[in-house]
Design a protein that fits this description.
Pfam families: ACP_syn_III_C, FAE1_CUT1_RppA
Number of domains: 1
InterPro entries: 3-ktacl-CoA_syn, ACP_syn_III_C, FAE1_typ3_polyketide_synth, Thiolase-like
Strand order of the largest sheet: 3-2-4-5-1-6-11-10-9
Organism: Digitaria exilis
Strand content: 5-15%
Structural class: alpha/beta
CATH superfamily: Thiolase/Chalcone synthase
Shape: globular
Radius of gyration: 26 Å
Largest sheet: 9 strands, mixed
Oligomer: single chain
Helix content: 40-55%
Distance between the termini: 28 Å
GO cellular component, one term: membrane
Family: Belongs to the thiolase-like superfamily. Chalcone/stilbene synthases family.
CATH topology: Peroxisomal Thiolase, Chain A, domain 1
């Protein structure tokens, strides 16, 4: 939807005036006071200072500096993203539609033709492209769901992402890491993945490690929030390594329940690693706001993404048909807390006026609440690539354009739903396209089991010097045109 030019100009002028109103009023008031009521001239002030003993002036200056320093130490420390890296799968792991269709018919389990047809239709409408990748275990007939296969996939995706982030960080070494936070929702072996990283990279004995599980696709941003809390109370120069992934090998569902076949069709292999610090040295992004909303008190939300057994005893993840709607409701609750922290005064004023209008006209007229324009607060939006329906729901709810959600749709097309790591692939897409500029603000949105909704705001400090990342070999082909789909139930 194209907004007329004069409307855009009026809105820009309104925002400029309202967002700077306090500063304008403060300057005008201070100028008026200084001109009319200031009893001391500059000459009088100079003469008074010269009359004071220098030791008294020095003592006063030291006290003021000490107070300023003490006040600053009580402020929360700023947190920065030093660098990030993503797993880039080799072409041998590709799962094009023709392969998926062939494997579905060759599957030795008792999967009926109707279930196969449903899965193929779902895949064709999913928004996934022909280059998404699955682990080696999925290329066997039947799929290898063994512990050994899962460990092999784990080592491949996690170590590749961590190797990439250390190679790109240009200075941060494994021995500089103070905390490891690793999240994987379903597969959690013993020892846990965080210990696996410590062992592989021979991190120092005093390193702290945390392993998060069961939080689904939202866990990546939950990990960022945890890292922020730790860094704000840690000594300057502390480094946290955050790794986000989902291991698929042992989770292939072999039954016929449609709601439990969805993960087989949508999820693909991937991982992302981040190095965060409370020191601005070598920083590429500054972490701003982190807001998490949990709606697990509602039974429907709690069971929206649910691991269970079907009536034949096959374990899988059941995705509710109301997943996109649930995500939309959770996002509204999240925005209620996140919006006031990031929106400019001009947008908050319009929201307040619409609320006041609804209250005054209650019972006499139906007043539609004003939908704030988050594009006034962010230049880029990264929506978890959970599926075409999820992206559509968020785009419609926030009033975003196709350009605003391009990174999310293209990530879904190229890499599929890589769970908690997807938003980092989207950030890599923006940088590979060259659209990220210094000072740009980024809003990351993720959803996960529970039901959870997370919002994280970043500010770009230093754009990537090159596009060497997961998109390096294909960015020239994007964006691609996605086919239109029917909205009927599949």
């Amino acid at each position: 939807m194209n907004t007329p030019l004069h409307v855009r100009l009026l809105k820009a002028l309104y925002g400029l005036v309202v967002n700077n109103l306090l500063a304008i009023v403060a300057v005008a008031f201070a100028s008026s006071v200084l001109q009319r009521g200031w009893p001391i001239s500059v000459d009088d002030l100079t003469a008074w200072l010269q009359a004071q003993r220098r030791v008294h002036l020095l003592t006063a200056a030291i006290l003021m500096l000490a107070v300023a320093k003490l006040r600053r130490t009580r402020w929360p420390k700023d947190v920065y993203l030093v660098e990030y890296g993503c797993f880039r799968p080799k072409p041998c792991y590709r799962a094009p539609f023709a392969t998926c269709r062939e494997h579905a018919h060759l599957m030795p389990y008792l999967i009926d033709e109707e279930s196969i047809s449903f899965a193929i239709r779902l895949l064709e409408r999913s928004g996934l492209g022909e280059e998404t990748c699955v682990p080696e275990a999925y290329h066997y007939m039947p799929p290898d769901r063994s512990l050994a296969a899962s460990r092999e996939e784990t080592e491949l995706v996690i170590f590749s992402a961590v190797d990439d982030v250390f190679a790109r960080s240009r200075g941060v070494r494994p021995e500089d890491i103070d905390v490891v936070i690793l999240n994987c929702s379903i597969f959690t072996p013993t020892p846990v993945f965080a210990d696996m990283v410590v062992n592989r990279y021979k991190l120092r004995a005093g390193v702290q490690n945390v392993n998060l599980s069961g939080m689904g696709c939202s866990a990546g941003l939950v990990s960022v929030g945890l890292a922020k809390n730790l860094l704000q109370v840690s000594p300057p120069g502390t480094h946290v390594l955050v790794v986000s992934t989902e291991i698929l090998s042992s989770q292939y569902y072999v039954g016929t329940e449609r709601a439990m076949l969805l993960p087989n069709c949508l999820f693909r292999m991937g991982a992302a690693a981040m190095i965060l610090s409370n020191s601005p040295e070598r920083a590429r992004f500054k972490l701003d706001r982190v807001v998490r909303t949990v709606t697990a008190a509602r039974d429907a939300d709690y069971r929206c993404v649910f691991q269970e057994e079907d009536d034949k005893g096959n374990t899988g993840i059941r995705l509710s048909k109301d997943l996109a709607t649930t995500a939309g409701h959770a996002l509204k609750s999240n925005i209620a807390a996140f919006g006031p922290l990031v929106l400019p005064a001009s947008e908050q004023l319009l929201v307040a006026l619409s609320l006041l209008k609804r209250k005054l006209l209650s019972g006499r007229a139906k007043v539609r609440l004003y939908r704030p324009d988050f594009r006034t607060a962010f230049e880029h939006v990264c929506i978890h690539a959970g599926g075409r329906g999820v992206i559509d729901e968020v785009q419609h709810g926030l009033g975003l354009s196709d350009e605003d959600v391009e990174a999310s749709r293209m990530t879904l097309h190229r890499f599929g739903n890589t769970s908690s790591s997807s938003v980092m692939y989207e950030l890599a897409y923006l940088e590979a396209k060259g659209t990220m500029k210094k000072g740009d603000r980024i809003w990351m949105i993720s959803f996960g089991a529970g039901f959870d909704c997370n919002s994280v705001a970043w500010e770009c400090v230093k754009p990537a010097p090159d596009a060497d990342g997961p998109w390096a070999d294909c960015i020239h082909r994007y964006p691609v045109e996605l086919p239109e789909i029917c909205t009927k139930d599949i």
